[in-house]
Design a protein that fits this description.
This protein folds into 3 domains: 111 residues, 2-Layer Sandwich (Methyltransferase, Cobalt-precorrin-4 Transmethylase, Domain 2); 249 residues, Heat Shock Protein 90, CATH 3.30.565; 62 residues, Arc Repressor Mutant, subunit A (Orthogonal Bundle). The chain contains 14 helices and 19 strands. The strands form 6 sheets. The chain has a 6-stranded mixed sheet with strand order 11-10-14-15-17-16, with helices on one face. The chain has a 4-stranded mixed sheet with strand order 1-2-4-3. The chain is an alpha+beta fold.
Length: 447
């Protein structure tokens, strides 16, 4: 028998102490079985002191029988001693099937035992069954939007395993891609190609807000429809809420339209949210919040088990929560390679001179934040107020730390007074920050 100091048994996700094997203790054992497994130590008071001088073999057998009768699982029992007293360790392994106590199901969260609510219970029972592959007798093939599936079939026909679309019948298309099973449509079929998916799944929407600050919203849009439609309409809505600026390229000062954020990175972030969201979570929708200097995208569902935020920043395997949805976006050419979306976002932003995006598990979901490139964009209004030299100077500063009056004169072949006036105007308009006092050493950086 091993010597263990009960005061060292700190309660945690897999450790609990109880004075006896009562109802609360059995709930804890149910929670252990439904989470990661764990050890319940019985015979320890709340203050971690012991009171049993000995625990008989019959008492131990009674505990085993009680666990079996109430939970229908067989525990591992270990007798421990400490300074002449005895207590028991009841070890429960993670179960492959849900374990209930008195008809209710429990999970561990930190060092507490919690009963699963209706939504949590549904998600728990179905966690090993992909949401998008489930079928439903309520769905009718007539609810499929003809133009949606034919567009995808035409785009991907003959590629990535989709037959040529010329002679492809609707039912053949859906059966071939596992969107129809024994004549019944899957959830994926409805959310991907349905005329009105929100009739059955109200939560499958995207909410877009334009914020002045954390609490002041100046625009609010709700995007409905099937997922292919949502991707297109969400991108269009975001474009209407951010600036399209201009850059000067080459020595000829040719103006080029540029958005606040690279559209490719935005599209990848939206695809990530749509494809990987937890559709079991019926109380939440994908959220997009647009601020002056960043875009925040949140989707319900934390990262799959075995994948961390740090792994997203390097080559990693793809763990697909919604394999049918992911597969259709891949076959239709929206996804180039599974598991590479976050890397493409990082590469595109880096190439365009933006800060690295932030990935974070936030509450019961996952967020991606994209940040503006400092001083990289000029709105139409701002552009109208600047001359070509000033615009070119701002472009110059994207690749150089600073500029001074002498540099400005040489770059644009102008007099000192002209350079002084141009730089002063840029500073007053908030585009540049002046460093140093008048005279030698004065230089300017992007604000």
């Amino acid at each position: 028998m091993a010597e263990i100091n009960p005061k060292q048994l700190k309660e945690a996700e897999t450790v609990e102490r109880k004075q006896s094997l009562n109802g609360r203790a059995l709930k804890t054992l149910s929670a252990f079985a439904n989470t990661k497994g764990g050890s319940l130590y019985v015979g320890i008071k709340d203050d971690a002191t012991l009171f049993n001088k000995s625990i008989s073999d019959q008492a131990q057998q009674d505990i085993v029988n009680k666990v079996i009768n109430h939970l229908n699982i067989i525990p591992e029992i270990t007798l421990h001693t400490y300074k002449g007293y005895e207590f028991l360790e009841i070890k429960i392994r993670k179960s492959a099937r849900p374990i209930s106590y008195n008809g209710k199901y429990y999970r561990r969260s930190g060092n507490t035992t919690r009963e699963l609510d209706e939504e949590g219970l549904r998600s728990f029972f179905l966690k090993n069954i992909a949401w998008d592959s489930q079928v439903d007798n309520r769905f009718s093939i007539n609810e499929i939007d003809e133009s949606s599936w034919t567009k995808v079939a035409a785009k991907a026909g003959g590629q990535r395993g989709i037959p040529e679309s010329r002679d492809l019948e609707r039912d053949e298309f859906f059966q071939h891609l596992n969107l129809m099973v024994n004549g019944k449509l899957t959830h994926a079929a409805i959310v991907l190609f349905g005329k009105n998916p929100q009739k059955y799944f109200p939560h499958t929407t995207i909410r877009i807000g334009r914020f002045k600050d954390q609490s002041t919203i100046i625009a609010d849009h709700k995007i409905e429809g099937n997922l292919f439609s949502q991707l297109q309409r969400t991108e269009e809505t975001i474009k209407s809420l951010i600036n399209k600026g201009y850059e000067i390229t080459g020595e000829s000062f040719v103006r080029r339209d540029v958005w606040d954020y690279p559209l490719e990175a935005l599209r990848e972030a939206l695809l990530n949210a749509i494809v990987h969201r937890n559709y079991h979570s019926t109380g939440s929708e994908i959220q997009v919040k647009i601020y002056d200097n960043r875009i925040w995208i949140w989707n319900p569902g934390t990262l799959p088990e075995g994948l961390s935020v740090e792994q997203l920043k390097k080559s990693h395997s793809s763990i697909r929560r919604n394999p049918l949805i992911a597969d259709l976006f891949f076959r239709a050419g929206y996804i180039e390679q599974f598991g590479s979306g976050t890397l493409r976002i990082m590469d595109v932003l880096k190439e365009a001179g933006h800060p690295e995006p932030e990935f974070e598990e936030h509450g019961n979901g996952f967020t991606i934040q994209l940040f503006k490139r400092k001083g990289s964009r000029l709105s139409k209004e701002e552009l109208q107020d600047l001359n070509d030299r000033q615009i070119a100077a701002l472009e110059y500063l994207k690749d150089h730390e600073s500029i001074n009056n002498s540099n400005y004169q040489k770059l644009f072949n102008v007099a000192k007074s002209t350079a002084t006036r141009d730089l002063k105007e840029l500073t007053e308009k908030g585009q540049l920050q002046r460093i140093g006092k008048k005279g030698y050493g004065t230089h300017y950086k992007l604000e």
